[in-house]
Design goal:
105 residues; five-stranded parallel β-sheet
């Protein structure tokens, strides 16, 4: 996504991605990675997404999340983690102030 510094939405749902580690622009406000067989999200993927408002991670194959994965997502209002294989979540995982909702079903 180099050279695309100004886009704000990225929808990659249902693309059979097994990994995703691209450097994303800080202008991104909406990111959907739902319904891809991604087992792990690198903390660095979200590290510069301070303007991210909506993050869709449902239907992945996530088994765990790094403790501080969302620490730089200061604008995050909606987070969908439903339909994953998450068993344990660190109590400090959701330190950010979500203004809308978290879906874990």
């Amino acid at each position: 996504f180099t050279g695309l510094a100004a886009f704000s939405e990225l929808d990659l749902r249902f693309n059979q991605l097994s990994e995703f580690n691209s450097k994303l622009p800080p202008s991104l406000t909406i990111l959907y990675l739902d319904s891809n067989p991604i087992p792990y999200i690198e903390k660095s993927l979200l590290s510069n997404l301070t303007n991210l408002v909506t993050l869709g991670l449902s239907g992945l194959k996530l088994e765990k999340l790094d403790q501080n994965i969302f620490e730089n997502c200061h604008s995050l209002a909606e987070l969908n983690l439903s339909s994953n294989k998450l068993k344990n979540l660190d109590k400090n995982l959701f330190q950010m102030k979500l203004t809308s909702c978290i879906s874990l079903t």
